[in-house]
């Protein structure tokens, strides 16, 4: 259990912390400094590198999460409300990320290759909205999970 929860929390920090940095620091700086063609090319390179770690984090979060639920707690029947909330919101985050990866991110990459910058801009703003939602979900999970154990 100690190794699982440690790996679980590290993976969650990499994913949620990485999104927070991209949204709150890199995004406004790139918008201020770079013209759209360079800005879109930058984001494709950033996402290519960050999404590799997101996929790895998702595999670790799900593997350790289910291991803790079934291997340590003995199944969904014996976990607290805070873990049910984490499971539901966590799965929603994974589905939102998969939509981003196979939808607007794929189209953003193509738009940059064919130099269709208006299309690239549309896809980037779609990704920004979905990542914004995932940041709120991730921070909510962290708050509910850590505080929730004292209520259930
Ligand atoms: C990205 C979404 C997620 C985040 C940010 C997250 C975050 C956390 C954090 C911070 C803890 C430590 C809580 C503490 O020790 O007080 C934790 C524990 C845990 N997480 Fe997650 N988690 C996520 C997704 C999931 C998913 C999808 C599952 C189930 C498959 C899951 C199952 C668990 C379990 C069973 C624990 C142990 C709870 C306990 O012993 O009280 N988590 N998680």
Listed once per kind, the bound small molecules are:
protoporphyrin IX containing FE
Distance between the termini: 19 Å
Average pLDDT rating: 96
Q: How many extended strands? A: 0
Low-confidence stretches: none
- Summarize the biggest pleated sheet: none
Q: What's the tally of helices?
A: 5
| Topology as a string of helices (H) and strands (E) | HHHHH
Percentage beta strand: under 5%
Shape: elongated
Structural category is mainly alpha
Quickly count the domains: 1
Notes on the protein architecture:
- This protein is an all-alpha fold.
- It has one domain.
- The chain contains five helices and no strands.
- It has helices at residues 2-33, 36-72, 81-102, 104-113, 117-148.
- The structure holds protoporphyrin IX containing FE.
- Protoporphyrin IX containing FE binds next to α1, α2, α3 and α5.
């Amino acid at each position: 259990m100690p190794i699982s929860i440690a790996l679980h929390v590290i993976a969650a920090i990499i994913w949620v912390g990485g999104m927070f940095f991209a949204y709150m620091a890199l995004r406004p700086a790139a918008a201020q400094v770079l013209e759209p063609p360079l800005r879109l090319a930058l984001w494709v390179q950033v996402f290519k590198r960050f999404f590799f770690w997101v996929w790895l984090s998702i595999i670790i979060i799900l593997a350790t999460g289910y291991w803790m639920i079934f291997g340590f707690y003995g199944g969904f029947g014996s976990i607290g409300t805070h873990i049910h909330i984490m499971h539901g919101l966590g799965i929603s985050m994974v589905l939102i990320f998969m939509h981003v990866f196979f939808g607007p991110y794929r189209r953003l990459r193509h738009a940059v290759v064919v130099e269709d910058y208006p299309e690239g801009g549309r896809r980037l703003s779609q990704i920004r909205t979905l990542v914004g939602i995932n940041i709120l979900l991730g921070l909510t999970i962290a708050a509910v999970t850590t505080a929730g154990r004292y209520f259930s």
